[in-house]
Specification:
It contains 16 helices and 13 strands. The chain has 388 residues and is an alpha/beta fold. The strands form 2 sheets. Strands 3-2-1-4-5-6-7 form a 7-stranded parallel β-sheet, sandwiched between helices. The chain has a 6-stranded parallel β-sheet with strand order 10-9-8-11-12-13, sandwiched between helices. Helix 9 packs parallel to helix 10. It is globular, with a radius of gyration of 21 Å.
Length: 388
């Protein structure tokens, strides 16, 4: 029997927790596989006991990136041996360099190869982040070269890994579980419900992300400034699942520039800052809006695009290879740093009910192409191959 040890100790925000939340039920459903999952105490609280799965809490996340890396390399081999696992799946881009068992590396951080990101960070004067990302990028590069198999969440990023490391990575799309995503009938808290209440014929644009630089909030904010003068008397409202306030987002990203831009453009009344929304309630937020927009200038998969398509929202995304791969013919695309072309594309969709319907239908169909069950099955197949 295959016994997987999934190291998800670095899954703290963004796609990391999303991945764990979705693969756990499908691993639990496999009677032919046992799994031991290493994760943070905070994420562990989300899971009840599951058949065929053992959870181990990892508290070694204190200190800087170098200290966490060394602590992980030192402690995890012993945890693997104690578990009896025979295949390691390392999530979070970093491999175990002396793994006691064959290792599958999940590599999914395109920041490490993005010239746009390093240029952006340098322009902002955030040299600490530049140094931290450079260090992690080198470790991630060595990790891809050290693992027995490297898996990327998209073909676009698998191609980038090959260019960057010389390693031929396997592309296995992340999935989408419609029943799991939409099943929670719990109502929204009153504060969120009031913010989402529709009082008129406003155009509602949604962007699901905590604040960071690479999601390119500033281009979207500038596009709102253009839109508010183009769709009058209709009002445009941009809904964000974060707050542009210091200390309200994961990581060290400064919201100061974005908050200043909001005031400079006079669009504060057009922004609805929802703050963090629990994952099981996100479907309410999607369905309360009209369009989904992602201006990110770098990405490896982008789960919200699939969630938005499944919720019946037309998707407009920056023109990245991975966005085209995920959306196929269901999305429309614009140059990542062009607020005016983003505004033009939004207007084109908002002013054409026929186009909105066409995009909605194509999106619903495209969202069915992503399956966590299939993703887990392909991962297990790779694990079986490594044990032969």
């Amino acid at each position: 029997m295959i016994h997987l040890f999934l190291d998800a100790s670095a899954a703290s925000s963004g796609s990391g927790p999303t991945y764990v939340r979705n693969v756990v039920p499908h691993l639990a459903a496999r009677a032919d596989v046992r799994s031991t999952i290493l994760l943070s105490p905070l994420l562990r609280k989300e899971f009840q006991d599951q058949p065929n799965i053992s959870f181990v809490e990892f508290t070694g996340d204190s200190g800087n990136a170098a200290a966490r890396f060394l602590r992980t390399q030192w402690l995890i081999p012993e945890l693997i041996r104690r578990s009896g696992a025979n295949v390691l799946v390392s999530a979070g881009n970093i491999a175990l360099f002396r793994s006691p068992v064959p290792q599958i590396l999940l590599s999914g951080n395109a920041l490490y190869t993005s010239t746009d990101f390093f240029r952006d960070v340098t322009t902002r004067g955030d040299y600490k982040l530049w140094l931290d990302t450079t260090f992690k990028a080198q470790i991630a590069k060595w990790s891809a070269q050290a693992a027995d198999c490297t898996v990327a969440p998209s073909q676009a990023f698998a191609d980038e890994i090959l260019r960057w490391t010389g390693v031929s990575a396997r592309a296995i799309h992340h999935g989408f579980d419609r029943d799991l995503f939409f099943r929670d009938a719990e109502p929204l808290p009153a504060e969120l419900k009031n913010k989402l209440h529709r009082t008129g014929d406003d155009l509602r644009i949604l962007f699901v992300s905590h604040y960071n630089y690479y999601r390119n909030f500033e281009t979207l904010i500038r596009a709102v400034g253009v839109l508010r003068n183009r769709i009058t008397p209709r009002q445009v409202n941009l809904f964000l699942t974060c707050r542009l306030e210091p200390g309200t987002n994961p990581g060290s990203y400064s919201t100061e520039a974005a908050a200043h831009l909001v005031q400079e453009l006079g669009v504060s009344t057009n922004l609805v800052q929802l703050g963090g929304v629990p994952y099981h309630l996100l479907h309410h937020v999607y369905r309360a809006c009209d369009l989904y927009v992602s201006p990110a200038y770098v990405e490896t998969f982008a789960h919200p695009l699939v969630e938005a398509m499944a919720a019946g929202l037309p998707v407009i995304a920056s023109d990245l290879a991975v966005h085209r791969e995920v959306c196929a013919d269901a999305g429309l695309f614009f140059p990542a740093f062009s607020p005016s072309q983003l505004a033009d594309t939004i207007c084109r969709v908002a002013e054409s009910p026929a186009l909105m319907t066409q995009m909605l239908q194509r999106g619903l169909k495209r969202s069915k192409d992503f399956s966590w069950k299939d993703h887990v099955a392909r991962m297990i197949s790779i694990a079986g191959t490594l044990l032969q």
